[in-house]
Automatic annotation (TrEMBL):
Residues binding NADPH: 15, 32, 88, 120, 235, 259, 261
HAMAP family: NAD_Glyc3P_dehydrog
Protein name (database record): Glycerol-3-phosphate dehydrogenase [NAD(P)+]
Binding residue positions for sn-glycerol 3-phosphate: 88, 116, 118, 171, 224, 234-236
UniProt keyword list: Cytoplasm, Lipid biosynthesis, Lipid metabolism, NAD, NADP, Nucleotide-binding, Oxidoreductase, Phospholipid biosynthesis, Phospholipid metabolism, Signal
Main location: cytoplasm
Residue ranges of every copy of the Glycerol-3-phosphate dehydrogenase NAD-dependent C-terminal domain listed in the record: 160-300
Function: Catalyzes the reduction of the glycolytic intermediate dihydroxyacetone phosphate (DHAP) to sn-glycerol 3-phosphate (G3P), the key precursor for phospholipid synthesis.
Domain Glycerol-3-phosphate dehydrogenase NAD-dependent N-terminal: 1-139
Domain of life: Bacteria
SUPFAM superfamilies in the record: 6-phosphogluconate dehydrogenase C-terminal domain-like, NAD(P)-binding Rossmann-fold domains
Species of provenance: Kiloniella laminariae
Length: 312
């Protein structure tokens, strides 16, 4: 919708024929983005061959599936075509950032990361939104920002894709923590503490991976963290809130077709922190609760019982 709004000719490749049919005939993605009228010029297709002549590819598949979606269509992708990564997560199977995984699968294609506080439904309704577009090649980054930006979709360019990626991936884990604390009714102070200490974990991991601190203080870091940790429409926050309110994870996930990336990324981020020897107690705690059946109250008690330490 953003690309079409900025005057581009847009095709969406989907594996789901119903989605393709809805977009082409109703101009709405009723299954995943109900209530957003799409520009009638947007075409959808189930045939990846239709992407062959694209000038630019936006990668919007959830992070744990991006490798398996992109690998079979590799021969269709011209190595000069820039890729704009929109997924927010760290691959569980490899511990790689999406940019690192793409470097393995499509090493020649230039890559940019588009991230920031962007609930999809608000973006699709053309409500005012600001984002980071990060590309190591500054000139290409500016060009992509011009191609995709519009009055309501304000793009700030950056040359720190790793920072933009880390901010987007880790904030989802912290948002689950905030949801849990709100579900347990532990108060606004506790949520503010989690956001701030969560940002500290994001910054430490980011710096270790070569990111710049200012990126993590910007839209793709602090901006997205604030949004996701405080808004009930966040899938990650909502998952945490359900768990904090006593619901079982398996029951909550039953029948859900949308993604809460923090579920998978809690595991990969925690493993990455261990590997890089970074102290990330909140992410580790969320990994324990989601993947190792840790008791929520005991986990909170353990976090609070940690020895006092210097803030920075
Ligand atoms: N929805 C939002 O507000 C925003 C989402 N993102 C990111 O965009 C990425 C995609 O999220 P959404 O568009 O929200 O997805 P969604 O939650 O609306 O839908 C899930 C998508 O995953 C696909 N999918 C599920 N299993 C799959 C598999 N095995 N192989 C391939 N595809 C599979 C489904 O077809 C569907 O398109 C995520 O990384 C998310 O963090 C980023 C910014 C905002
Ligand atoms: O990344 C997002 C907003 O920037 C979407 O957050 P949720 O996946 O938690 O809904």
């Amino acid at each position: 919708a953003v690309a079409a709004n900025a005057g581009n000719s847009v095709a969406i490749w989907s594996r789901n024929p119903q989605v393709v049919d809805d977009i082409n005939n109703q101009h709405e993605n009723a299954l995943y983005l109900k209530g957003a009228a799409l520009d009638p010029t947007i075409r959808a297709t189930t045939d990846a061959k239709d992407l062959e002549n694209a000038d630019l590819l936006l990668l919007v598949t959830p992070s744990q599936h991006l490798r398996s979606v992109i690998t079979p269509i590799k021969p269709l992708i011209d190595p000069d075509v820039p890729l704009v990564l929109c997924a927010k997560g760290v691959e569980i199977s490899s511990g790689l950032l999406m940019s690192e995984m793409l470097e393995e699968v499509l090493p020649k294609n230039p890559l940019a990361v588009l991230s920031g506080p962007t609930f999809a439904i608000e973006v699709a309704r053309d409500l005012p939104t600001a984002v980071t577009l990060a590309c190591a090649d500054a000139a290409l980054g500016r060009k992509l920002a011009n191609t995709l930006g519009s009055r309501a979709f304000r793009i700030y360019h950056s040359t720190d894709p790793v920072g933009a990626e880390i901010g987007g991936a880790v904030k989802n884990v912290i948002a689950i923590a905030c949801g849990i604390v709100d579900g347990r009714q532990l108060g606004d102070n506790a949520r503010a503490a989690l956001i701030t200490r969560g940002l500290s974990e994001i910054v430490q991991l980011g710096i270790a991976k070569g990111a710049r601190r200012e990126t993590l203080m910007g839209l793709a870091g602090m901006g997205d963290l604030t949004l996701t940790c405080t808004a009930t429409q966040s899938r990650n926050y909502a998952l945490g809130k359900a768990l904090g309110s006593g619901e079982k994870l398996a029951d909550y996930l039953k029948g859900r077709i949308t993604v809460a990336e923090g579920l998978g990324s809690s595991k990969s981020v925690s493993a990455l922190a261990r590997k890089l020897q970074i102290d990330m107690p909140i992410c580790n705690a969320i990994c324990d609760v989601l993947h190792h059946q840790a008791d929520i109250d005991q986990t909170i008690a353990d976090l609070l019982a940690r020895p006092q330490k210097a803030e920075f």
